Amino acid sequence: MVRRLAGSSITDRGRYIVVRTPENPGFHWGNFLLWPGPPAEDEVGEWMAQFAEEFPAATHVALGIDVTEIPEWPGYLSTTGLEADSSVVLAAELPPEAGPPDGAPTVRPLCSDDDWGQEQGLRVTLAAEDGPPPPGHHAFLERSTAESRRLVESGRAEYIGAFVDDRLCSVVGIASDGLGVARYQNVGTHPGYRRRGFASTLLSRAGSFGMEVFGARLLVIVADPDGPAVGLYRSVGFEPVEGQWGLSASPVS
Ligand SMILES: CC(C)(COP(=O)(O)OP(=O)(O)OC[C@H]1O[C@@H](n2cnc3c(N)ncnc32)[C@H](O)[C@@H]1OP(=O)(O)O)[C@@H](O)C(=O)NCCC(=O)NCCS
Fold first, then answer.
1. Do the beta carbons of residue 21 and residue 31 sit within 8 Å?
2. pLDDT tens digit string along 222-240?
3. Distance 33 CA to ligand 1 centre (A)
């Protein structure tokens, strides 16, 4: 849904679907092949060749697998150079509930060049927490912020920030096509402002927005199963509903 809203092309080739986001070629999960199930051992090479054919200029590989459960990754994948990406998809039928945040930040939508510039800076800060970024990552983040802004300006998304002294400390996005589902995006709090209830407050505000303005009946959020966010999402009312799977390889630094 979000790829479609953002203007990505989605082409069904029969055996797989191609999702293409030419404005942001370094966005792995904006430029990928979606397959209906995990590859058999003798199919991995063919999948990678197919990816190279569809994306000849790409320096990454991204292969989505359109199933909701994979009991165990096949052992042979360890010899392919591909990494298994797994995410947990959580959903809620009511906006998350959150108590008041510490320090009374100003909570409001992002709406100016300065706000979006700060959002871009926050993404860079959060990405740096994972170590030195791979080549091209900064350009990817810039284009990703530009896409979020376009979605907001076209009425398909809202990004809400928590500001302390005009500094953006936490942000949560939510996008919807108005057909019943709203999907959270880009949840993050500056490392110096964590555990003050900022993200919880924004999840709650964005969820209410999604239901009231986009008419959503289901709020969806996706998290790294081993990351810091999944416990928070569960504590504010989201329930895990399924897994999301993919195989990828990044450019080497
Ligand atoms: C995940 C993340 C967004 C949470 O942001 P945050 O603003 O710290 O979130 P909150 O303060 O609302 O909640 C965090 C924890 O602090 C607790 N908390 C909230 N208010 C608190 C307070 N006043 N005092 C102490 N703890 C508090 C919450 O209960 C929650 O605990 P839990 O994780 O055990 O459930 C932040 O850690 C982050 O940006 N991480 C890196 C990027 C990332 O992983 N993003 C999510 C992608 S899916």
1. yes
2. 999 998 899 999 999 999 9
3. 33
Q: Express each pLDDT in 85-121 by its tens digit.
A: 899 999 999 999 999 999 999 999 999 999 999 999 9
DSSP 31-57: SEEEESSPPPGGGHHHHHHHHHHH-TT
> Does any ligand 1 atom lie closer than 6 A to the CB of residue 192?
no
Q: Looking at the CA of residue 235, tell me the nearest atom of ligand 1.
A: 35
Residue among 90, 123, 183, 189 whose CB has most ligand 1 atoms within 8 A, to mutate: 189
Does residue 175 contact residue 5 with C-beta atoms inside 8 Å?
Answer: yes
Distance 248 CA to ligand 1 centre (A): 28
Same domain for 194 and 106, yes or no, is yes
Q: What angle do CA 67, 73, 74 make, to 5 degrees?
A: 115
pLDDT tens by residue, 163-201: 999 999 999 999 999 999 999 999 999 999 999 999 999
Q: End-to-end distance of the chain based on CA atoms, in angstroms?
A: 32
Q: Which residue puts its alpha carbon closest to atom 27 of ligand 1?
A: 195
**Counted domains in the chain:** 2
**Domain co-membership, 120 together with 209:** yes
CA torsion angle 237 235 220 119 (round to 10): 130
Residue 80 lies in a domain: yes
Q: Is 231 in the pocket of ligand 1 (CB under 6 A)?
A: yes
**197 CB less than 6 Å from ligand 1?**
yes
